[in-house]
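Technical note accompanying the year-one report. For the benefit of new consortium partners, we illustrate the data format agreed upon in the data management plan: each record pairs a sequence with a structure-token string. No post-processing was applied to the example shown here.
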Amino acid sequence: MESALAGIRVIELGQDIAGGYCGKLLAGYGAEVITVEAPGGRGRIRAEGPFADEAAPGETGAMHLYLNTGKQSVTLDVESVSGTALLVRLLEHADAVVVDGPHPWLDDLGLDHDTRAELFPKLVTTLVSTFGQTGPYADYTSTNLTSFAAGGQMALTGEPDREPLKNGGYQAEYQAGLNAFTATLAGLWAADDTGDGDEIDIAAMEVMASTLEASLNTYCYLQRPALGGRRGNIMSSVIGIYPCADGYLGVHAMPRNWPALARLIEGDDLVTDERFYSQAARLQHEDELRATIYAWAGDKDKREVYAAAGKMRAPVAYVHDMADLYESPQLAARHYFHEVEHPLAGTLRYPGAPAGMSETPWQTTRAPLLGEHNGTVYKGLLGLSDADLSVLHGQGVI
């Protein structure tokens, strides 16, 4: 069965999370993705643990095993004269290039916008960075935390009387990578239609700002932060996160389903309690209602509550931790996890596709060893000889 992106060749430069995730998605849907790594494997993705085998950290790190699935790996010092020349030859054979790094990284190699347009007129170039390729911040050094802060997400995350917080993990970079993937597909579609490649500028700051929903919109339209600010885990008397015996319960009751929640907590007595009988009454006695929900949740088993709530149509779920996701019957039923064998890391379960396709399914194949495809790419694609590779290796170019 042919994959959705079969026949598309992508060069991935940068070895960071956003570009790496973009490349992973392209590879998962069938594109041939060649990730260009520094000789010695000095990229961030390979450096991050934990490691399945401490004796081979560069090959068995969790981030590398996840983000580099399905790709081919070549080593290349692109900043050397010979390395830049080889990169040009690679790009001549590519449909798209994904570059994750600060502006103006490609320009410094002599591959600025005009040069790329002349040399590779149909090439789709996706540039991923924190602030984009233009503007006063374009050359700033930054991190995932910078993207959260500069993009406005941190202003909305945390308790109202405490300092701002960032979201867990590297979500700013993953969201930038997801947008880069979508935009690259659009660019490939356009290039196939018009014959002209496009240059795509992905800024993580803008990706974060674009997901602020009504908070930023309200400020733009009305010039007031009506929905801005941090609201923490408790948004109203019956919306919030409550600790239970083995984790946390999420409650999100609207007026229409308050009776079902009340019966789940205390039965009909709470439904008819005049302190909580109406929305206005619940707001007036908000502290008492919160205390009631806290007391009820404290000794409960999260899965038992979830099952009971489902039967009663009460708006309660539990917060899934990583073990819950790994053991989820829902994900198991949808065959979300895939087992993949790696020569050094062994057989591991991998998260699957973010979107399923019935006729052109997602493929999960192992992450490559460093430089594993030097022969395949440099000899098979570019026509170099074994002697050429020996010289390039001796010079530290590959």
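Partners are asked to follow this layout when depositing records. The chain has a mean pLDDT of 91.
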